[in-house]
Design a protein that fits this description.
This protein is mainly alpha-helical and 120 residues long. The protein has two domains: 61 residues, no CATH class; 33 residues. The protein has four helices and two strands, in the order ααααββ. It is rod-shaped and about 70 Å long.
Length: 120
């Protein structure tokens, strides 16, 4: 099953091209709406004798592989506000980690004003 985050225009184009090639060369009809359509097309492409089908299957497998769980989210595809919020979050995380590494707990009052932490 393909995750929603992995489903984009490039994935759909690759799936459609592979589906057409499989239908043309092997006579196999794969419905894109089936829950196991991606895995089925990848399995069929591995067993194919045609190089083009194998390449499309490999490309599709690369597009739908599980994302690296260690990778940090990227602000590149976000808007300006979301990008700024992302950078502020990263700065706050780094600041909190530095405070805990030094062993000093924040003292005094802490307020949040318009999304920013103000220590008093």
């Amino acid at each position: 099953m393909i995750a929603e985050a992995q489903f984009n225009r490039a994935t759909l184009d690759c799936m459609t091209a592979l589906r057409r090639q499989l239908k043309r060369s092997l006579g196999v009809t794969v419905r894109l709406g089936d829950p196991d359509a991606v895995e089925h097309m990848i399995d069929l492409s591995r067993d194919s004798q045609l190089q083009e089908i194998r390449e499309l299957g490999t490309r599709l497998a690369d597009l739908v592989q599980a994302p690296d769980p260690v990778a940090q989210p990227s602000p590149l595809a976000q808007g300006a506000i979301a990008s700024r919020q992302f950078s502020h979050r990263q700065e706050n995380i780094a600041r909190l980690e530095a405070d805990t590494d030094q062993g000093s707990a924040p003292s005094g009052s802490v307020r949040i004003y318009r999304g920013q932490v103000i220590r008093g």
